[in-house]
């Protein structure tokens, strides 16, 4: 028996390709969903403020978002170490939503190490598209695992610089390295810690 290769000309497969592409593109938050030096009092305060800010885009109320994020935290902290947390939840929304927050000061997130969290990448995913959620989450983790990307995010001075860093291939640091500091100093900005790597 000869197997016929499926192509994107088949309607169901073409739709799946388009849907998957849309999912992957949404992993980089828009400029309006990037908040630098967000002041919070702790994990609950941080998630509450993020839920309030993401609610309009999700078309859900902030209490629903906050409840979903806190419920996920109850099953295990989304702090992944090195000052990073990736809160996430599956919700009844039509498309994925992402945001990035840099906290000032860093907060305890019950992560696997003793590092306080200052980089928070929040990912909301459609419940009906769970098949593509784990690959997207894994991609975010790989990106944030790169020390030079973390340092770039900590030094970024604008949403555009954050988007640039999140869009970089973690396996290939750009040359020259995008260090967003004054060249005459050569140091991280005051109050922003330097990342020592893995």
CATH superfamily of the domain at 29-146: Mannitol-specific EII, Chain A
Continuous helix count: 6
C-alpha-based Rg, rounded: 18 Å
Order of helices and strands: HEHHEEEEEHHH
Shape: globular
CATH architecture of the domain at 29-146: 3-Layer(aba) Sandwich
Count of distinct strands: 6
Give the amount of beta strand, in percent.
15-25%
The separation of the N and C termini measures: 52 Å
What class would the helix/strand composition place it in? alpha/beta
Which spans have pLDDT < 50 for at least 5 consecutive residues? Answer: 1-25, 181-191
CATH class division of the domain at 29-146:
Alpha Beta
Tell me about the largest β-sheet: 6 strands, mixed
The percent range for helix content is 25-40%
**CATH fold title of the domain at 29-146:** Mannitol-specific EII, Chain A
Q: What integer is the average pLDDT? A: 82
Verbal overview:
This protein is an alpha/beta fold. It contains six helices and six strands. It has a domain at 29-146: Mannitol-specific EII, Chain A (3-Layer(aba) Sandwich), CATH 3.40.930.10. α2 crosses α3 and α5 runs antiparallel to α6 (159-166). The longest helix has 16 residues, at 43-58. The chain is globular, with a radius of gyration of 18 Å.
What is this entry, summarized?
With 198 residues, this protein is of the alpha/beta class. The chain is built from six helices and six strands, in the order αβααβββββααα.
Name a few traits of the molecule:
about 200 residues; alpha/beta; Mannitol-specific EII, Chain A; six-stranded mixed beta sheet; 6 helices; disordered N terminus
């Amino acid at each position: 028996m000869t197997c016929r290769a499926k192509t994107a000309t088949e309607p169901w497969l073409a739709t799946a390709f388009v849907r998957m592409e849309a999912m992957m593109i949404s992993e980089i938050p828009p400029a309006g969903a990037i908040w630098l030096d967000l002041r919070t009092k702790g994990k609950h305060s941080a998630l509450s403020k993020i839920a309030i800010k993401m609610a309009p885009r999700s078309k859900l109320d902030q209490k629903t978002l906050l409840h979903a994020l806190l419920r996920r935290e109850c099953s295990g902290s989304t702090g992944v170490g090195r000052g990073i947390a990736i809160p996430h939840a599956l919700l009844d929304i039509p498309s994925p939503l992402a945001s990035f927050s840099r906290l000032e000061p860093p907060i305890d997130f019950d992560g696997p190490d003793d590092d306080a969290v200052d980089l928070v990448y929040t990912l909301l995913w459609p419940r009906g598209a769970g098949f593509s959620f784990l690959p997207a989450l894994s991609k975010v983790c790989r990106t944030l695992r790169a020390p030079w990307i973390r340092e770039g995010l900590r030094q970024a001075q604008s949403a555009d610089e954050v988007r640039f860093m999140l869009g970089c291939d973690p396996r290939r640091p750009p040359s020259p390295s995008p260090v967003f500091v004054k060249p005459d100093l050569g140091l991280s900005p005051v109050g922003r810690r330097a990342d020592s790597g893995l």
